[in-house]
Amino acid sequence: MRRLAACLLVFCCACSKPPEDVRKSHLIGPGFRYLYANQPRLQRVTHTLEINSEFGWTLQSVKAGPRATATLSALLEEHPEAVAAVNGDFFSKEGLASGIQITGGRLVKNPATSWMAFGMDGDNRPFIDTLTCYGEIIINQFTSLLIDGFNRTRQSEEFILYNSFFGPATNTNEYGGEATLRLRHGHATVGDTVQAVVIAIDSTTGNNPITDSTLVLSGHGEKQVRYIRRMFVGQILEVAITSSRGRVKEAVGGFPVLVRAGANDIRPEFNKGEFYAEATARTAVGLSDSALYLVCVDKTPPATSAGMSLFDLAEFMISLGCTEALNLDGGGSSTMWLNHKIVNKPSEGEERKIANALMVLKP
Questions:
Q1: DSSP symbols for 48-84
Q2: Secondary-structure breakdown of the chain: helix, strand, coil percentages, each rounded to the nearest 5
Q3: Which residue in 10, 125, 220, 340 has its CB near the most CB atoms, within 10 A?
Q4: pLDDT tens readout for residues 283-331
Q5: Do the beta carbons of residue 219 and residue 228 sit within 8 Å?
Q6: Which residue in 172, 170, 140 sits closest to 156, CA to CA?
Q7: Cβ–Cβ < 8 Å for 230, 219
Q8: Cα three-residue angle 181-99-126, rounded to 5 degrees
Q9: Are strands 159-162 and 149-150 parallel, antiparallel or unpaired?
Q10: Alpha carbon distance 221, 217 (integer Å)
């Protein structure tokens, strides 16, 4: 009887032993690793891409189309050069990203208010910062028109500049004026000034077409329409788009900042809100002195992975060595794609359609 009791005690002790953590590391290429961690005691599963930009890896933002959404897998079907990717910014049901987006130097969307962003500057250096763009149309050395907004609905007494990321046409009414500009070389990129030639003037109909090689300057208000009517077909203008960080090649928005100067930026008073305190699937981007990190946290049945609060996510980014980190869209949007397949487990069981994404390109 005693022997049986002893055996049962040993069996129970063996059964109650906490499960061991499972960690895997896969080298994708020089300076680029995928890290998987399953920590049963913490009920946490994380997926991390560690990227050393010194080896030539670059990041690019991609949009699902004007006012559209698509799964991450579908987005990447059009980008065979992509090696890995994660979902990007928060977005509206119409597919409009909440913050800024720049892709290939071209402005997709400018935030209405200050909104944090992850981006790559003109020298392919990553940054996390507030980011806003400004623009002007330079008619001559004495006259320039300040642009009030980009790729958004035109309001009273405004100049709005549209490119093809807005859609096939400006969708404006007849109460204004529009000048269609054909770029002489390349695209109008953030941080540069380019020449354009006026190819059409319209002050009666609105809703003018936009192509990949044209811009439309749309104005509403007596002064704005008067300036447009003074333009003429064949006139050479300059389009200058600047940003609060100079030249920027890529950017996506995010909120909130998780880590700032190496410290957790999610203060205790924030954790009273469900958005901050709820343990859920999360996506984040972070920067250390030597690498860039893209992270997805799973939210599956709690016994496997319970997700993270924003405070815990910030602590996790710090544990990777990040001195700066930014939260991206989470929940059902959290998705990581690597070598032609989704490697995390989306919390809704399948991929959610998203507005934009960050993809990693081959050197």
A1: EEEE-GGGT-EEEEEE-STT--B-HHHHHTT-TTEEE
A2: 15, 40, 45
A3: 220
A4: 999 999 999 999 999 999 877 899 999 999 999 999 999 999 999 999 9
A5: yes
A6: 172
A7: no
A8: 90
A9: parallel
A10: 13
> Does one domain contain both 113 and 213?
no
Each residue's pLDDT tens digit, 342-363: 999 999 999 999 999 999 998 8
pLDDT of residue 344: 97
CB 128 within 8 A of CB 325: yes
**Token digits of residue 202:** 């319209």
Say how many Å lie between the first and final Cα of the chain, rounded. Answer: 69
The domain tally of the chain equals 2
Sheet containing 248-253, strands listed edge to edge, beginning at the edge strand earlier in sequence = 106-109, 101-103, 248-253, 116-121, 126-130
Measure the CA–CA gap between 357 and 63, rounded to whole angstroms: 7
What's the rounded Cα separation, in Å, for the pair 340 and 80?
9
Residue type, 8: L
Q: Residues 179, 230: one domain? A: yes
On whether the CB atoms of residues 21 and 37 are closer than 8 A, the answer is yes
**Among candidates 138, 92, 130, which has minimal Cα distance to 110?**
130
Mean pLDDT, to the nearest integer, of 262-276?
85
Let me know whether 236 and 278 are in one domain.
no
Domain assignment of residue 8, yes or no: no
φ, ψ (nearest 5 deg) of residue 76: -80, -10
Which pLDDT belongs to residue 6? Answer: 46
The domain in which residue 49 lies consists of 20-127+252-361
User: Is 10 part of any domain?
Assistant: no
357 and 257 in one domain? yes
Report the distance separating Cα 36 and Cα 29, nearest Å: 16
Task: Tell me if 45 is assigned to some domain.
Answer: yes
Asked if residue 231 lies in contact with residue 183, where contact means CB atoms within 8 angstroms, the answer is no
What is the DSSP annotation of 301-350?
STTT-B-B-HHHHHHHHHHTT-SEEEE---GGG--EEETTEE-S--TTSS
Q: Are residues 118 and 260 in the same domain?
A: yes
**pLDDT tens for each residue of 33-51:** 999 999 999 999 999 999 9
Give the gyration radius of the chain's Cα atoms: 25
